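Problem: given the chain below (149 residues), write out its structure.
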Amino acid sequence: MTRTQRTGAQPTPQRATDEEGVRLPRLRFKDVVVRGAVQGIAAVALLFIGTLFVADHHDRETFLAVVGGFSMVFAGVGIVVGVWFWTACSGDIRRWRDWRTITGQYEGVTIMAPVLVRAGVLALVLFPGALGLYHLVDNAAYDSWLYGS
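Solution.
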């Protein structure tokens, strides 16, 4: 077995961190929301594929209704609590990778704020997707592949 070893004089690149070891730049609200929306669009595509594995028409509609209801509730709770945590952190927002930089008892909120905002936005995008798929399955023709068996 052969190994490639770096012999050049160039050092390996280091990530920029502050004095506490937190990676820079800090997370921005807009970036967290955009990433959550993109992941929500991917979740709608996965929901569509997952819907095809539910064979019965009534079960397919029930599945989509339950996913839509849970995502609506989680979107509301995730966004409200996440934004509340975000404002309570006063700019000290950390990534999930910065978990080891937590030193105080209440600093876990600095990591949970972006997690809840991203998951809430994901669910906020998933809710109308599930609702639209529900209406699409409900209005499908009886003998179509979208209707089910």
